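Attaching the record inline, Q. Sequence:
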Amino acid sequence: MRRWPRRVVRLGALAALGYAALRLWRATRATVADEAREWEASPFPFPPVPAARHDAPAVAGPGAAWVAPIGGTCPASHPVKVKVASGIFHVPGGANYDRTRPDRCYPDAAAAEADGFRAAKH
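Structure, as predicted:
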């Protein structure tokens, strides 16, 4: 009878360790470096939230093929949506195009492929 409580405690500790490892892995795969982010303060029990950057340029830089999404959507001139973390791009009419919140917007699929992204499976 004494084995069950020990097993439950060990299983809980193993689950906590696995959860901590998952959180660490996700934190290392962040697309934006923490030092580049600006943070807004929140009330005590809540953590700070990333500040919205209104001064960020729409284009990544001179000669860049992609633009940043505006309000979570791509402009009509750059309809291809890219998720940087997954390395996948979505074209208009694709299965998950409407529900995808882009990190970058490209004018066509060829430009997204040139930057190393792959097409989403339909």
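DSSP finds two helices and six strands in the chain. Confidence is low (pLDDT under 50) at residues 55-59.

More tomorrow.
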